[in-house]
Specification:
The chain has 70 residues and is of the alpha/beta class. Helix content is 16%, strand content 17%. The chain starts with 8 loop residues before the first helix and ends in an 8-residue tail after the last strand.
Length: 70
């Protein structure tokens, strides 16, 4: 497994299979505009709107959310 830490959203999403959001930085609010829909999004801080992200076709896992996980 190759794990990397990114310094910005563009770097974080480039050629990735999964993204773990572990901070509530504002730039992650528009993550759906910047990533391929095949990327798994794990939201550890529950900052994204799970329903909205899933309706857009993304695989979304909100850590600790009842009924919102895949």
């Amino acid at each position: 497994i190759n794990i990397s830490v990114a310094h910005n959203l563009s770097e974080a999403t480039e050629d990735k299979h999964a993204i773990v959001i572990a901070t509530d930085w504002i730039e992650f609010n528009d993550i759906h505009l910047n990533i391929d829909k095949s990327v798994i999004v794990v939201d550890c801080v529950n900052m994204l709107d799970a329903d909205k992200i899933q309706k857009l076709g993304y695989i979304y896992i909100g850590v600790g959310r009842n009924g919102k996980q895949l």
